[in-house]
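In this supplementary section we document a worked example of the pipeline. Step one takes a protein sequence of length 444 as its only input; no multiple sequence alignment statistics are reported here. Step two produces a three-dimensional model, which step three serialises into structure tokens for compact storage. The input and output of this example are shown verbatim.
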Amino acid sequence: MGTRRILIADDSPIETERIKKSLESLEGAEVVSVEDGASAVTECKRAHYDLVLCDFEMPGLNGLQVVRVLRSSWSRLELPILMLTVRDDVQTKVLSLRQGANDYVTKPVEPEELLARVQAQLDLKTAVEANIEARVRMLEARKLATIGRLAAGLAHDLNTPAQFIADNLVFLQKAVTGSSQLLERTRQYLVGRPEGNAPFADEFHEFWRQKRVGYLVDEAPKALEEALNGVLRMARTVRDLKEFAGFPEPQWAPADINRAIENTVAVSRQVWSSVAEVSLDLDRSLPSVACDITALKQAFFDILMAALERAPARAGIGHAAAGRTMLLRESPATAVPLHMTIRSRHLEGAIEIQFRDNGSALPADLARGLRHSASTSDLLELMNDQGLGMAYSVVAIQHQGELRDESSPGQGATLVVRLREGVSSPRARQVHTAAPSPGSRRAS
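The serialised model returned by step three reads:
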């Protein structure tokens, strides 16, 4: 959990000091105090706060007025407010809650009660924020899945006309080659001007010169060759995109991990080719692994993109973190390009994929989350990352594998994906978990 900012609005310096000392025991708490209601409203609009403790009676705006003003901008979940009051009657408490306070504490405050109520509100706010972020990530995942399906459908629609164009270009290539040979042989035959053909030969040579037939004969096959190469390249890109998107639908089945890596690198080439170098060192003896290969390719893509985002100075990259939109610009001539090596190998009962780059190390919070001894808070920090968090979810949760950081100090970053052989699909695991044991009442 990061720093939590708490605002105290109380016109009693003695009471404010007592409350601040109590709150200092909260881990990561930053406490700010003001002496009247108007200052509290101004401070909330000026800076972000996670909790407000507001005195019921203050000069200028009283506590109820402060609550009403703040509630016009923030809900109870967005900005919790605890009312501080010397009154212990039910009417005051009910009025405070109805005006928008989340809770109340009677003065003089008891430190233990205060800390318990403050911690409860902060924990609730944290849980709400985590829930909202989880929903946002779920929506992003659905959006990506929708884009993937649309891209796969588009790739399918483009594949047929691309094949038609390629076939017609091959036909034209053969036709132009044959016609060019015929025209060249005719020209050479007429150069000697055989008897009786002099007028035709002169007319033929004049037509050859005016229409630049010699230039066309030389360049037409080259143009067709380039066009054919371009169409074939487009067809390969369409096939790679279609394969990456998992068209028609992703499914849990044995898959070639090496091919998935190659497909991911090919599809993402346009993103990294101008700023990075990616080399593959793949073990061709890898067995097929039962998995959701479409999800794994998305995880590989996220790991590759995360490496680019960590090295803006080296590779000349900027990015918009909210939408993970890569904005590439040309690197300075003296900049060292980012280089990544993707290595696969077969271990006993598992397949390991290593992503090693010469960029900067992972941020500390993400590195902690990718260790075996990661705490719950470290994992939450990791899951909040839109790139590596999604990759971790696919590898560690969906496929019961491992995604860990094996970087060495000063030697860039190394992320390792380990996939165990023989892992069943999530649906099969749910069925197995839900199945009653033979001795249970449900089985009888």
